């Protein structure tokens, strides 16, 4: 059970801390990317967009997974705070999915010669974005907040089926994307000079995403005025 008293006491402090950590990692990451990380021998400095594109994709999937899990917890426990967390995760996931597709298109134009192609990974990522958009459309389709939350939660859980498709799409089908080179059973397959800044930017985006999530949680609580309901549980 989520303890609202704990959240009320520490939420602001934690959010400020995550924002500061995000800024530190971002500045550090930019320095490493542009001064230490080498250019690709084929794509030259175009490859540096991967330091934003790849972490955005990882985190979009992670936060959608969190959305699905907390939606399931909400349906099981009926605790409204789980729904607050789920909705907040959904906001962050949709931002990251859009960032993934936009940076992918910017990267794809010079690398592949086209802004978009119905590649398996691109298509499955677009499907994830559609699930996120429909999640919010469902939430705004009913007058009853509880009813819309329950239906949206079921829909979010169904969207979890798309996550393994995104992950293994490059292994199951012939795609323009290369095979997984970081999150593999055999360990990372890219040089540490590129892996190092990649993880710095991952943590920068991760802390920023947590910061946005915590802000959304506070706004959602105030907007719903469910404080008394939570305190009774």
Overview of the molecule:
The chain is an all-alpha fold. It has one domain. It has 8 helices and no strands. Helix 2 (50-77) runs antiparallel to helix 3 (80-112) and helix 4 (120-139) packs antiparallel against helix 5. The longest helix has 33 residues, at 80-112. The model is unreliable at 229-233 (pLDDT under 50).
Mean pLDDT: 82
Portion in helices: over 70%
The largest sheet is:
none
Shape: globular
- Percentage of residues in strands: under 5%
Number of domains: 1
Gyration radius (Cα, Å) is 19 Å
DSSP summary: helix tally:
8
| E-strand count | 0
Q: What is the distance, rounded to the nearest whole angstrom, between the alpha carbons of the first and last residues?
A: 9 Å
Helix/strand structural class: mainly alpha
List unreliable stretches of 5+ residues.
229-233
Brief characterization of the structure:
The chain is 76% helix and 0% strand.
How are the SSEs placed, and which strands pair?
Layout: H1 4-35, H2 50-77, H3 80-112, H4 120-139, H5 145-159, H6 162-172, H7 192-224, H8 227-232
């Amino acid at each position: 059970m989520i303890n609202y008293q704990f959240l009320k006491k520490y939420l602001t402090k934690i959010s400020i801390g995550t924002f500061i950590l995000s800024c530190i990692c971002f500045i550090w990451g930019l320095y490493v990317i542009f001064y230490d990380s080498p250019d690709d021998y084929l794509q030259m400095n175009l490859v540096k967009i991967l330091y934003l594109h790849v972490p955005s994709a990882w985190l979009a999937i992670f936060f959608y997974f969190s959305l699905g899990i907390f939606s399931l917890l909400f349906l099981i426990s009926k605790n409204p705070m789980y729904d607050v967390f789920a909705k907040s995760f959904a906001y962050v996931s949709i931002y990251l999915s859009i960032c993934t597709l936009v940076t992918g298109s910017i990267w794809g134009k010079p690398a592949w010669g086209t802004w978009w192609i119905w590649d398996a990974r691109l298509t499955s990522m677009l499907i994830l974005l559609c699930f996120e958009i429909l999640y919010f459309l469902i939430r705004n389709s009913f007058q009853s907040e509880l009813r819309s939350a329950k239906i949206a939660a079921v829909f979010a859980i169904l969207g979890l089926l798309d996550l393994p498709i995104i992950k293994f799409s490059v292994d199951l089908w012939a795609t323009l994307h290369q095979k997984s080179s970081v999150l593999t059973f055999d360990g990372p397959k890219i040089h540490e000079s590129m892996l190092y800044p990649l993880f710095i930017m991952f943590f920068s985006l991760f802390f920023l995403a947590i910061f946005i999530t915590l802000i959304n949680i506070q706004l959602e609580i105030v907007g719903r005025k469910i404080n008394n309901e939570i305190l009774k549980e």
